[in-house]
Amino acid sequence: xxxxxxxxxxxxxxxxxxxxxxxxxxxxxxxxxxxxxxxxx
Length: 41
Prior knowledge:
By secondary structure, the protein is of the alpha+beta class.
């Protein structure tokens, strides 16, 4: 699920930082899928 909502992930070992870019619609799509599962249950 994380892979579907993630556009890129970059790691800078020298600086010790991680940058994650999410797809613009990724979080909304994930929320919609979770809502659909709750309706079925």
